């Protein structure tokens, strides 16, 4: 089935709603981790005159605000989602009523204690990148820390990112680090930890919703540093959820920076081996009205290594105006308006007609004819009006 295309106002605006975490997500519920019990050491035997005594050694105990310990106990006992949501709403109100420094300290102490409670809800994002639902109390509290004090949340994110305990916690921590620490060191750590997470095999093999949502972080960072990792994951035929998340991230990188990302794909033709039709979709994003992107399109069309099947896929969609919309951890997905789309169509038609008249493009004449006929049909419909 051909994908829907967003067209000017004389056509219905079609938007594909495709949340990364909603596709083949294998939800991961973390095993509950209880507070480590205080060590009990028996008193030493009475010492003789020649014996010396030493103070018993006990494990450090992290003090935890009773508001949070009580909430943890209540959530462990809750049996239905309505009760859980009500308890979380009450906990949020109590945290918001506290002075900010006290709320931050209470959350940090609870997180340091390693206690947790399974909430039984999903990892679901709101439109602002915060969580509408959280799978565990720890994930909920990390999210709350980001709401209450972004700088403190970024600082604690570094604690979370120091060990690979939970992909959902890492997803929130990466978001908090990005939003709360704009320093060069913070950006370097964000790049390093994003790469570490995306390449961590155990989380790839059983991807949680948070892991899949974290594919928005490379989109936020931009550039081409993550293109090799994403193309590797796009080709993961045995892992469709991860492959789709990587496809969406790479597609959005192309939309945001088409020239650089398409050039990266052109420089490494083997990077999309087995996913050639997907590469065609990406190159169909190019704007023929931009000289650099037009040159990339010409290189692509004249490349003898590009198969007829891939060229046909390209011709059926160029210029690609499919946009997938979902709430994301860090970025907003924007779609062009009808005037922008109409202008792109007109420029693509003019360039395709020029290529048709150029003998250098004789080998791709059938594909160019497909493009021109389709775009001429769009132009004729525009003249007739809605």
Keywords, please?
386 residues; mainly alpha; two-stranded parallel sheet; two-stranded antiparallel ribbon; disordered N terminus
Describe this protein's structure:
With 386 residues, the protein is an all-alpha fold. The protein has a domain at 62-200. It is built from 18 helices and four strands. It has helices at 66-77, 81-97, 100-113, 137-148, 150-160, 167-180, 184-198, 201-205, 209-213, 216-221, 227-234, 240-256, 258-267, 276-283, 291-302, 308-317, 338-356, 365-384; strands at residues 16-17, 124-125, 131-133, 324-325. The strands form two sheets. The chain has a two-stranded parallel sheet. Strands 2-3 form a two-stranded antiparallel ribbon. A hairpin with a 5-residue loop joins strand 2 and strand 3 (131-133). The relative contact order is 0.11.
Q: What is the topology, as strand order, of the major beta sheet? A: 1-4
Radius of gyration (CA) equals 27 Å
- How far is it from the N-terminal to the C-terminal residue, by CA? 24 Å
Instruction: Give the fraction of residues assigned to helices.
Output: 55-70%
**For the report, how would you describe the main beta sheet?**
2 strands, parallel
* Total beta strand runs: 4
Number of separate helices: 18
């Amino acid at each position: 089935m051909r994908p829907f295309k967003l067209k000017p106002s004389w056509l219905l605006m079609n938007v594909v709603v495709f949340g990364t975490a909603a596709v083949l997500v294998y939800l991961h519920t973390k095993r509950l981790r209880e507070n480590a019990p205080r060590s009990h050491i028996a008193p030493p035997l009475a010492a003789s005159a020649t014996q010396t005594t030493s103070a018993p050694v006990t494990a450090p105990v992290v003090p935890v605000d009773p508001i949070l310990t009580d909430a943890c106990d209540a959530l462990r006992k809750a049996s239905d989602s309505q009760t859980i949501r009500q308890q979380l709403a009450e906990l949020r109100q109590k945290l918001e009523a506290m002075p900010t420094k006290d709320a931050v300290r209470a959350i940090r102490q609870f997180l340091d204690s390693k206690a947790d409670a399974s909430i039984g809800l999903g990892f679901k994002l709101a439109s602002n990148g915060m969580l509408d639902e959280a799978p565990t109390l720890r994930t909920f509290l990390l999210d709350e820390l980001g709401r209450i004090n972004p700088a403190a949340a970024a600082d604690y994110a570094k604690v979370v990112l120091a060990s690979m305990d939970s992909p959902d916690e890492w997803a929130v921590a990466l978001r908090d680090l990005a939003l709360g620490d704009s320093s060069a060191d913070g950006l370097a750590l964000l790049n390093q930890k994003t790469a570490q997470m995306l390449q961590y095999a155990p989380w790839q093999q059983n991807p949680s919703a948070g892991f899949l949502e974290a594919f928005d972080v490379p989109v936020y960072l931009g550039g081409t540093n993550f293109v090799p990792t994403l193309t590797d994951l796009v080709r993961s035929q045995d892992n469709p959820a991860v492959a789709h998340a990587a496809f969406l991230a790479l597609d959005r990188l192309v939309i945001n920076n088409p020239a650089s990302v398409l050039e990266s794909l052109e420089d490494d033709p083997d990077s999309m081996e087995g996913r050639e039709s997907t590469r065609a979709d990406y190159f169909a994003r190019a704007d023929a009205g931009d000289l650099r992107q037009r040159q990339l399109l010409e290189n692509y069309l004249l490349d003898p290594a590009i198969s007829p099947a891939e060229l046909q896929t390209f011709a059926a969609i160029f210029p690609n105006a499919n946009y997938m919309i979902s709430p994301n951890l860090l970025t907003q997905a924007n779609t062009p308006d009808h005037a922008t789309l109409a202008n792109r169509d007109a420029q693509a038609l003019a360039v395709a007609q020029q290529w048709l008249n150029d003998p250098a493009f004789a080998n791709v004449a059938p594909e160019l004819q497909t493009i021109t006929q389709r775009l001429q049909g769009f132009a004729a419909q525009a003249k007739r009006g809605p």
